[in-house]
Design goal:
Radius of gyration: 17 Å
Largest sheet: 6 strands, mixed
Protein name: Carbon-nitrogen family hydrolase
Strand order of the largest sheet: 6-5-4-3-1-15
Keywords: Hydrolase
Low-confidence stretches: none
Number of strands: 15
Organism: Paenibacillus vulneris
Family: Belongs to the carbon-nitrogen hydrolase superfamily. NIT1/NIT2 family.
Structural class: alpha/beta
Order of helices and strands: EEHEHHEEEHEEHEHEEEEEEH
GO molecular function: hydrolase activity
Length: 257
């Protein structure tokens, strides 16, 4: 399968509408040679633009979801369209969305671990209710978001639910870039899964974002990675490698706890 992670630049002068249009064009470009496309975390608003969360929140049947549903259907690709601020029953969530090749919304995940270090996310948003795994033609896919990477228990729960491919949407700061690289590799290796991440670049509310979106194999080897500029990170992976590696080196079967 061919994977494309769109490492979108957050530009301070852009409106939400402008950013959505630019991301839409990049999806069109990536779809020319991809089975699965990813976008980053709260990219349409800009993660650290907390003052815009309520104003720019949408429902799950709002224009953002409808647009990328149509993109997935038109191009015949799986599309993990990153996350947005979702308004649901009077509360706000950091919700990521996964569409299949027909444009059907087959997976939603509300971020479990809300970031509170120099962030208002924990004050403004409501946490989700834990691990989520969804069936695709590539195998079972687990969805997580940014700060979740620091909590290995969540990923182990996904493996217990059958996850073989881990998708991470993020707005990880450059300040802790080495942590990002470490966690991308570690979560893939310890769970013997492919991990595909999509991080923003650029600056949002004076926070420099780290980029380095990655595609990591079940041995913890980085197959492809972006730098610190807007780009589309691409690689071709073989999902059957997950089971082969788990059979060759069955560490998950040796768990005691």
């Amino acid at each position: 399968m061919k994977v494309a992670s769109i490492q979108l630049e957050i530009k301070a002068h852009e409106s939400k509408a402008q950013r959505v249009e630019r991301a839409s064009v990049m999806v069109d470009k990536a779809a020319q040679d991809a089975d699965l496309i990813l976008l980053p975390e709260i990219w349409a608003t800009g993660y650290f633009s907390f003052d815009k969360y309520v104003e720019e929140a949408e429902t799950i049947d709002g224009p953002l979801v409808r647009l990328f549903s149509e993109k997935a259907r038109r191009h015949g690709v799986y599309l993990f369209a990153g996350s947005f601020v979702e308004l649901k029953d009077g509360k706000y969530y950091n919700t990521s969305i996964l569409f299949d090749r027909q444009g059907k919304l087959i997976g939603t995940y509300a971020k479990t671990h809300l970031f509170r270090y120099g962030s208002q996310e924990g004050e403004l948003l409501t946490a989700g209710d834990g691990a989520k795994v969804f069936d695709t033609e590539f195998g079972k896919v687990g969805l997580t978001t940014c700060y979740d990477l620091r909590f290995p228990e969540l990923y182990r729960q996904q493996v217990d639910l059958g996850a073989e491919l881990l998708l991470v949407t993020s707005a990880w700061p450059h300040q802790r870039l080495e942590h990002w690289k470490l966690f991308n590799a570690a979560r893939a290796l310890e769970n013997q899964c492919f991990l595909i991440s999509c991080n923003c670049v650029g600056t949002t509310r004076n926070v420099l974002l780290g980029g380095h979106s990655s595609i990591v194999d079940p041995w913890g080897v980085t197959v492809a990675s972006g730098g610190e500029h807007e780009t589309i990170v691409k690689a071709e992976i073989d999902p059957s490698e997950v089971q082969r590696i788990r059979d060759v080196f069955p560490s998950l079967k040796h768990r005691v706890l």
